[in-house]
Amino acid sequence: LDIEMENINGVQVGTKIRNEYNDELTQIVYISGKTEYALELFDINPLNFLVKPLDYDKIEKVINKHLKITGFWTDVFSYSVGHDTFKIKLKEIMYLESNGKKIKMFLKDREEEFYGSLEEIYNTQLIKYDFLYIHKSYIVNYDYVSVFEYEKLLLTNGEKLPIGQYKRKEIRKIQNEIKKRRL
Q: By the 8 A CB rule, do 162 and 138 touch?
């Protein structure tokens, strides 16, 4: 919200959101060229106060903070089928399997199919979570692995998936890192 607007100022809008609508969850970021408004904002509990002229890095930090607070980036996987975009909680994904450009996603209770690249999915969405890129055709959620063997994994549902020959050393290293972090 800009603080100085034509008919109502941003402080009044924030107060209305918090008090009249009884909404403490909406994240409010104020923008102004004048810092003297900052003290008036304590009762509104904004996420941040940005001073004009706006700095791209500060805007990005505020957006990332909002996404972290709301869990938007931290617990969902996004994929598209046609023009529709879907979101799935990461903890529901057992593994993904690639067959050419078609990806089959195995969930706890069902399967989904969409087009994409396992490498791109891993590098853009799953690398920062406990998913293992075990083979050119498989990405596995660590939480669904019951047994690690040299050449394969045994999943909690009884399925066996191969670990690629060139991935074995890397998978063992990542497995140990995850184990240490979770202790």
A: yes
